Amino acid sequence: MRKSRRSQEELLATILRIAKDGAKKTHLVYQSNMNFKVITPFINHALTKGFMIYNEDVKLFNTTDTGIRFIEAYDTLEAYMDNESTLW
To answer: Which of 6, 8, 58, 67 could bridge to 16 as Cys pair (CB 3.0-4.6 Å)?
Structure first.
């Protein structure tokens, strides 16, 4: 059985998890199993929304407190949807 594609929210949460302790763009790409073309809009969105910051001095992306709250909200929703999957 083929696994369904990941949602945009899942991809964003994945990127934010990777960047929690700081990550270079290359690490985000490889650890999220995405390519540079696909990941760039997600990174730009995360930066624009304040979910992530880029530290020029050390060239690392870091997840902000707002990004952590996004991950927590996403995980809560995922858990709820998993528990309610019998309704579908």
So the answer is: 67
